[in-house]
Design goal:
The structure is a homodimer of 481-residue chains. In chain A, β18 and β19 form a beta hairpin. The first copy, chain A, has 15 helices and 23 strands. Chain A has 481 residues and is of the alpha+beta class. The longest helix of chain A is centred in the C-terminal third of the chain and has 26 residues, at 381-406. In chain A, 37% of the residues lie in helices and 27% in strands. Chain A has helices spanning 4-10, 19-29, 46-65, 79-83, 86-92, 118-128, 173-194, 240-245, 269-278, 306-321, 335-344, 355-360, 381-406, 414-422, 435-445, and strands at residues 33-35, 42-44, 69-70, 76-78, 97-102, 105-113, 137-146, 160-170, 200-203, 215-222, 228-238, 248-250, 256-258, 260-267, 295-299, 326-328, 349-353, 362-367, 373-377, 408-410, 426-431, 448-452, 473-478. In chain A, the strands form 6 sheets. In chain A, strands 3-7-8-14-11-10-9 form a 7-stranded mixed β-sheet, with helices on both faces. Chain A has a 5-stranded mixed β-sheet with strand order 16-15-17-18-19, with helices on both faces. At the A-B interface, β2, α3, β3, β4 and β5 of A face β2, α3, β3, β4 and β5 of B. β5 (97-102) of chain A pairs antiparallel with β5 of chain B.
């Protein structure tokens, strides 16, 4: 039976009045994760890790379709490697964890825990790439990385996180840059189709680019508080790491040339994006493709009526055979407790089955995304649920897309920018391209440039939102996680 | 065209005269792996990592069938955690890598890179387990661990390696010990059915048990040089870590009790076992379930005859649709070069297709395990290849099993033991149970006790192989990796 302590366990802060606490509550109380013993570390509990496994499977499939192969490179990197690319070391050195000892013995060379693997992979590529025949080389690894952040939040920013990092090498600059753009498209499709997440994609400013890249492309997702979450980035690295690690190939023309590279990554941050883009006052709301439980069956009164329990199991079996991830909640708890439990955990479809339902040949269905409740004929329940899951995914994407579109505000002045930001919006702005204006906006409003707008056609007809000089770019500014 | 340098690339040392160099050659030249820049680290190249992914998928399925769920715990553990279990710290402290700094800042508490995760998981279990209702708790993680070894070899012993570690908690000692035994059985099935690897399983001696366990069970596989490779271990931990981390639950009887635990792991060492148990003078020989390429099609004379290439692709498509991992080798190289290339890489089935084969309605088939060459009707090739793959797996297991059985020698004296070990055998011996005798055997012959024999019935009727006192156990001694 549900009691007060059970209700307390499931209680989460109000999403409208305290979004930050709501996020923490959802993370912890839906048992996605917990805090690790070392400050800034987190534990992926089974429910959270299962979401990551589903994201991984979908991403991995798409990478392989692009001719990418998986490999695994060492986590420990000589500290000196980091130094070889000037911008790279400047960007990462302050947050790099360093191994100095093994047992009681001091190491002769300090080792760092990979914050990203351009350097160690660059070192191996220089061994493996000798001829144009060895190109393109497209490898990916699923790995943990360590970046020591001062302020941490589950999934969004933790000292250690899980991600994939793709590292590619090509004979030409064009191919390498095209790879960065292709993978950005792959990420966008993954976000749209698997996470039901609309994203803005485009090039990033010099200030916001990856330390060591020639150009960085990003995908930005709008959270329900109007802030942006950088949800994936791809980098065109030019010859920067090839020069630092001597990655050269003998070209068809008989001359030795540096390889051109790209790298790209998505991480467990995507789980944070799902929580904040789709969640609501009842908790998590999971897009069906990444829901570890897509449908929960709640037998009503099965203690008194064994037929209810039996039918519930039969239906579960039929759904499972059709590829639906389903569970029957047989716990000795009230239906109300169970409804709350699974709603908090964002399960897309709840199916209730009682003796009366069986007699009428129906099941009561409740959608998590809309809270609509209706009946569905037992005959044809498998097709009905499968279709419903597809419909939920589409609806979740459309809802998030409508929200995003309605929260992008064109701004011409700093005052307009402030009003837009304070109202929980992205700013669609024109910008002169100077770092000083980005810094000023950051200082004034804690907002940053996110990605260039896909449409740059009229940029030169406008003036910079900050300094009023002639604009060079149309770009999104937003507060960001 | 094959040239001398290509042949050199594929050349490996003679397995009979230099097994150690043969192993290294197979690892590197079949492109399973490479050395990382930091001493003792290795890179999993795509071919080697693909084998690991196949092992993972098979193992993960079996774990889930046991009710185990995946999670992920932080890699960085407070150094003080290791100290809490006396034997544990003694066993692991000398090989633990320690993080002392982030950027230029010294950490207030030193952190170690997990050598295994009993401590950090114990810490979390103490938070999550409150009542008997929370038990059993059965979690697994796929992760990297770091153990700084002085002497390293690819796959067998590297500073960082990949593994899975299962950590379970129960209300009773019996359940926890049963879990260790059940998982040992799961590992054995995996070894037998997926890796075609016969293994000896049983309890380990006190000397050989895991640091912190009450009892360790191991699975040992015989390599072709007669040495043993510990290929998986399961541990009954009793209340040791529960006491160190205060993992208590309120039992049905209203009293608080410590939980009983087990843990179990297999690692990328299994790839080393595959190489050394099945490999031969031509290189790797992969069991079909973990072969990234199960069948390679080599078109003969396709440059002159486009039909050959087309038919090869058609057959590949048909095999792929039947779930066979197949590739067509269309490279501009001689057939001999290609044969050598794929034999070195251990691909179970080679299919050759030329104009004459097509005219006769057959394909030439070559088994990697037996080197038999025969023709198979094109009509029905899919069924033929599928059956052949199953037959190869069975044959590989039977061959390895016969080899293992014929290399286990009963020994009554130390002289017999030395002769058996020098002849590349395991010793089936009786032992008094004293650590001194194990130490002496280690010192004299570099051999160690591996696992207790499944049959202990007549142990008391014999005398210790070393000291001649009354025996307590029947146990295998062997040189080991």
């Amino acid at each position: 039976m549900a009691n007060n302590s059970d209700r307390f366990v499931n209680q989460i802060a109000d999403i409208n009045s305290d979004y930050t606490q709501w996020y923490t509550d959802v993370c912890l109380k839906s048992e996605l994760c917990d805090y690790g013993p070392v400050k800034g570390t987190m534990v992926f509990r089974p429910y959270g890790y299962a979401i990551w496994e589903l994201i991984q499977a979908e991403a991995d499939k798409r990478f392989k379709a692009q001719g990418v192969k998986n490999a695994y490179f060492p986590m420990l990197i000589p500290q000196s490697f980091l130094m070889r690319e000037a911008e790279h070391v400047e960007g990462f050195a302050p947050e790099v964890a360093t191994v100095t000892h093994v047992g009681d013995t001091e190491l002769s060379e300090k080792l760092v825990l990979r914050p990203t693997s351009e350097t160690v992979i660059g070192n191996m590529y220089s061994k493996w790439i000798g001829s144009y025949r060895d190109l393109p080389l497209k490898l990916n690894q699923w790995a943990n990385v360590v970046r020591w952040e001062k302020t941490t939040r589950p999934f969004l920013r933790t000292s250690e996180f899980l991600w994939q990092e793709g590292h590619t090498a090509f004979a030409s600059a064009e191919e390498a840059n095209a790879d960065a753009l292709t993978m950005l498209k792959v990420y966008k499709e993954l976000a749209n189709e698997v996470l039901a997440l609309p994203v803005l994609t485009g090039k990033k400013s010099e200030k916001e680019k990856f330390a060591g890249a020639v150009a960085t492309y990003g995908m930005e997702a709008m959270m329900k508080d109007g802030k942006s979450l950088q949800s994936g980035t791809t980098h065109y690295l030019g010859e920067n790491f090839a020069k630092a690690f001597d990655i050269k190939f003998l070209d068809k023309d008989g001359t030795h040339k540096y390889a051109y590279q790209a790298s790209w990554g998505i991480s467990t941050r995507l789980i944070g994006a799902i929580i904040m883009a789709h969640g609501d006052e009842r908790g998590l709301c999971l897009p069906p493709p990444v829901a570890p439980v897509q449908a929960v069956i709640i037998p009503i009164g099965s203690a008194k009526n064994p037929e209810v329990g039996e039918r519930a199991e039969q239906i579960a079996k039929a759904l499972e055979n059709a590829g639906v991830r389903v569970t029957v909640d047989n716990r000795d708890q009230s239906p109300g407790f169970k409804f709350n439990h699974w709603e908090l955990r964002g399960v897309p479809v709840r199916l209730e089955l009682g003796a009366r339902d069986i007699a009428s040949g129906v099941m009561t269905v409740c959608r998590r995304d809309t809270a609509e409740k209706f009946t569905m004929p037992l005959d044809g329940i498998v097709g009905g649920v499968t279709e419903l899951l597809a419909k939920i995914k589409t609806n979740m994407f459309e809802k998030a897309e409508a929200f995003t579109k309605s929260h992008i505000v064109p701004v011409k002045t700093l005052d307009e920018m402030q009003a837009a930001l304070d109202g929980g919006n992205f700013c669609d702005a024109y910008w002169c391209g100077d770092r000083e204006c980005e810094d000023k906006i950051k200082q004034l409003y804690s907002a940053s440039s996110r990605v260039f707008n896909a449409d740059q056609s009229d940029a030169h007809e406008h003036t910079c939102v900050c300094c009023g000089k002639k604009a060079k770019h149309r770009i999104y500014f937003a507060r960001a996680y």
